Automatic annotation (TrEMBL):
Any Pfam family the entry gives: ABC2_membrane
Entry keyword Ribonucleoprotein: no
UniProt KW Chaperone keyword: no
UniProt family annotation: Belongs to the ABC-2 integral membrane protein family.
Transmembrane regions: 64-84, 91-112, 132-153, 165-190, 202-221, 233-256, 276-297
Protein name: Transport permease protein
Top-level taxon of origin: Bacteria
Entry keyword set: Cell inner membrane, Cell membrane, Membrane, Transmembrane, Transmembrane helix, Transport
Positions of the ABC transmembrane type-2 domain: 58-300
Organism listed in the record: Brachybacterium equifaecis
């Protein structure tokens, strides 16, 4: 029998159905998927946490073990052997403020890059909005970040730090810049890694280099003394991770009483442009990175199943 005149074609959706929220198979909300598919996103986060700690004796305690080992190694090698702790009051807080930033950056960036290839069975066999995979990786990284942040807060309080409006603003600015910038990079590299598996190894190198090209282990004024006034100094300052690490130093270290007292007579303890430095440049770079990463991911995601 022929279809009635005026009836919708097979596989199409009428206006009334579209108004009720119906969508054709394979269509989604693009970069808004993490907001509109919150239930699926929560399921993926739970799945990643279960898989990661399956068969693990320590479980979530690994969120403390890794940064603790990093801190001890760097503090002994740089703080004691090289002597940075002698010239930097409350060096333990200074160091750990940078470590938590780099750890969050590395975990979000690395896990987001591997999120599509690591979930190849789901991506290639059933339809799920692909954006959910890198975003779930970021949320898992934030779950691991919370214990490290609590340790940082405890250490800062022991040194006499007290919360303030400046500290809160610096922390919020740092988190926004870091997360927007890193998820943008993660979306970009996730799309590239689906086609070229070498990308994930390149990302590991970037994380390693970022640890040393950001003022995590040393003070930013040491870099200014070495290359100040050159194009390299401006590029160093515009590194979003440099901006974020300095914002975390402002939030948790710079206004510790003994640091503030020394800074009054030792200008090297003050960062250029403090308290918030080049925060506006960090936001602009982060936003541009997010837009580029999202556009590339959206244009690539329909080829993921074939690439995997």
């Amino acid at each position: 029998m022929s279809a009635d005149v005026g009836s919708p074609a097979v596989g199409t959706i009428s206006r009334s159905e579209r108004a009720e929220g119906w969508r054709a198979p394979g269509q989604d909300s693009g970069w808004l998927n993490p907001l509109k598919e919150r239930f699926l996103l929560e399921l993926l986060v739970r799945k990643e946490l279960r898989v990661r700690y399956r068969g693990s004796a320590l479980g979530m305690l690994w969120s403390y073990v890794k940064p603790a080992v990093q801190f001890v190694v760097f503090f002994i090698a740089l703080g004691i052997f090289i002597g940075l702790s002698r010239d930097t009051p409350a060096y333990a807080v200074y160091l750990f403020s940078g470590i938590v930033v780099i750890n969050l950056f590395g975990e979000v960036f690395g896990n987001a890059t591997r999120s599509i290839t690591g979930n190849s069975a789901l991506v290639s066999k059933i339809y799920l909005p692909s954006e959910l995979f890198p975003w779930s990786s970021m949320i898992v990284a934030l779950v691991h970040f919370i214990p490290q942040l609590l340790v940082l807060l405890t250490g800062s309080l022991l040194y006499g730090w007290r919360p303030s409006v400046t500290a809160l603003v610096a922390f919020i600015l740092g988190m926004v810049i870091l997360l927007v910038f890193t998820i943008g990079l993660g979306l970009l590299t996730a799309a590239m890694n689906a086609a070229f598996r070498d990308v994930e190894n390149f990302v590991d190198l970037i994380v390693m280099v970022a640890t040393w090209l950001s003022p995590v282990l040393y003070r930013v004024t040491m870099v200014q003394d070495a290359i100040g006034g050159t194009i390299w100094w401006w590029l160093y300052q515009l590194n979003p991770l440099t901006i974020v690490v300095e914002l975390f130093h402002t939030a948790f270290w710079r206004y510790i009483p003994q640091v503030a007292e020394r800074a009054a007579v030792d200008p090297s303890l003050s960062a250029p442009g403090e308290p918030f430095g080049l925060w506006w440049a960090g936001l602009l770079i982060a936003a541009a990175t997010f837009v580029i990463g999202t556009v590339v991911f959206e244009r690539s995601k329909r080829r993921f199943a074939q690439s995997l």
